[in-house]
């Protein structure tokens, strides 16, 4: 079946996050990749959503230091027999 | 030197070095609640200490601890879900802000100007159901299937929560950028 039947914008848009999350099966993923190569409307939109997700992912999770917690923990551990 | 003493020393060098990461994760799961996060990390690490003999040295300690922390949080989270927490439907936030930016900033350059603290505040302020899905998926990098199993909800629900959570985040960051004058 090759790359399969072409899909329309609506079918691509509905799957934007699944596509960007790598959650689509290979067949659907390929269909969307092909659609994005050809569709001047969808490509910038997908790109925007990808940039947005990258920001959330790279900036949302930061290690935080808490000296109070560290002291509390060492104390709690000391009490464990 | 007692065996217990050796175990503690080993636990401190192997596990406690990940304290900051665990606390960071706890803060996002709890939506920035410092005292709840401290309790959570302490409970998780004491569990880890009791299970330390089962941990294989040399395997990924950080991942092991994060799993314990996550499970500790989820048990509490699930027991609080007896009353179904309905998240009100916010139609405006269902749209992508791309429609507004298509001409002026299609590459989302305004995101660069938003400070990290604002991104974090946006995540923290999501309704808990949404926030947990985002933390597990976007911050921890878990698959839909994994998030579904952890949260005890169908994969379809994971998808819709992520969709709506992300749209809310986007809308909030967009509003912030407008207020700050990053966008005209």
Beta content of chain A: under 5%
User: In percent, how much strand structure appears in the residues of chain B?
Assistant: under 5%
Shape of chain B: elongated
SSE series of chain A: HHHHH
Oligomeric state of shown chains: heterodimer
Number of strands of chain A: 0
User: How far from one another are the termini of chain B?
Assistant: 67 Å
Q: Which secondary-structure class do the elements of chain B indicate?
A: mainly alpha
**Mean of pLDDT of chain B:** 91
Largest sheet of chain A: none
The number of distinct helices of chain A, counting runs of at least 4 residues, comes to 5
Instruction: Outline the low-pLDDT stretches of chain A.
Output: none
State the helical fraction of chain B.
55-70%
In short:
The complex is a heterodimer of chains A (81) and B (184). Chain A has 81 residues and is mainly α.
Give the topology, please.
The complex is a heterodimer of chains A (81) and B (184).
Chain A: H1 9-13, H2 16-20, H3 26-38, H4 42-59, H5 67-79
Chain B: H1 3-14, H2 19-29, H3 34-50, H4 61-79, H5 98-101, H6 110-113, H7 116-124, H8 128-139, H9 144-151, H10 155-179
Helix pairs in contact in B: 2-3, 2-4, 3-4, 7-10, 8-10, 9-10
Structure description:
The complex is a heterodimer of chains A (81) and B (184). Chain A has helices at 9-13, 16-20, 26-38, 42-59, 67-79. With 81 residues, chain A is an all-alpha fold. The longest helix of chain A has 18 residues, at 42-59. Chain B is mostly helical. Chain B starts with a helix and ends in a 5-residue tail after the last helix. Chain A binds chain B through residues 17-18, 21, 23, 44-45, 47-49, 51-53, 55-57, 59-66, 68-70, 72-74, 76-77, 80-81, and chain B through 4, 8, 11-12, 16, 19-21, 23-25, 27-28, 34, 38, 41-42, 45-46, 49-50, 96, 98, 101-102, 106-108, 111, 114, 116, 119-120, 123, 134-135, 137-141, 143-144, 159, 162-163, 166, 169-170.
């Amino acid at each position: 079946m090759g790359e399969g039947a072409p899909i329309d914008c609506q079918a691509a848009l509905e799957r934007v996050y699944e596509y960007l999350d790598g959650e689509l099966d290979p067949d659907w993923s390929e269909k969307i990749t092909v659609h994005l190569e050809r569709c001047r409307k969808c490509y910038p939109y997908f790109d925007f959503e990808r940039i947005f997700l990258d920001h959330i992912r790279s900036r949302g999770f930061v290690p935080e230091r808490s000296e109070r917690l560290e002291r509390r923990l060492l104390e709690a551990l000391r009490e464990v027999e | 030197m007692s065996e217990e003493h050796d175990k503690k020393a080993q636990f401190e060098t192997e596990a406690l070095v990940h304290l900051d990461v665990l606390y960071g994760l706890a803060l996002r799961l709890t939506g920035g609640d410092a005292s709840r996060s401290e309790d959570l990390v302490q409970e998780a690490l004491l569990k880890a200490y009791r299970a330390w003999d089962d941990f294989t040295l040399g395997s990924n300690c950080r991942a092991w601890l994060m799993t314990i922390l996550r499970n500790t949080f989820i048990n509490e989270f699930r027991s609080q879900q007896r009353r179904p927490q309905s998240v009100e439907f916010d139609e405006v936030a269902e749209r992508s802000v791309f429609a507004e930016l298509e001409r002026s900033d299609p590459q989302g350059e305004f995101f660069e100007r938003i400070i990290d603290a604002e991104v974090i505040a946006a995540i923290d302020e999501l309704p808990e159901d949404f926030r947990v899905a985002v933390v597990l998926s976007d911050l921890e990098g878990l698959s839909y299937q994994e998030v579904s199993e952890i949260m005890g909800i169908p994969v379809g629900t994971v998808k819709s929560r992520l969709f709506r959570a992300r749209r809310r985040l986007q809308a909030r960051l967009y509003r912030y950028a407008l207020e700050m004058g990053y966008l005209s």
